[in-house]
Amino acid sequence: MESFIVTTKDKATSMLLRKMLKAVKGVDSISSLSKEDKEEIALIRAINKGHSKKYVSTEQFLKKLEQK
């Protein structure tokens, strides 16, 4: 089984895509992500991006924050 996440720009495109997927044999289910699901995915991506296994000193980190 394979899963996909598709983001549409408007509701009309979303509805059209849903209709097309429902007509395709082999599509098991179609569901939408909740706001909480989207937040969880964004958090996981941010955590994974931050895991560089590279040491960063507190001073360097604070300097970068001050620059922004």
Walk me through this protein's architecture.
With 68 residues, this protein is mainly alpha-helical. It has three helices and no strands. It has helices at residues 11-23, 35-50, 58-67. The protein is elongated and about 55 Å long. The mean pLDDT is 88.
The radius of gyration over CA amounts to 19 Å
The quaternary state of the protein chains shown equals single chain
Approximately how much helix is present in the residues?
A: 55-70%
Give the amount of beta strand, in percent: under 5%
Write down the overall mean pLDDT.
88
- Poorly predicted sequence stretches spanning 5 or more consecutive residues: none
Characterize the overall form. Answer: elongated
**Helix/strand order, N-terminal first:** HHH
Annotation field: number of helices:
3
What's this entry about, in short?
With 68 residues, the chain is mostly helical. It contains 3 helices and no strands.
Q: Topology, please?
A:
Layout: H1 11-23, H2 35-50, H3 58-67
Please name the defining characteristics of this protein.
single chain; 68 residues; mainly alpha; 3 helices; 57% helix; 0% strand
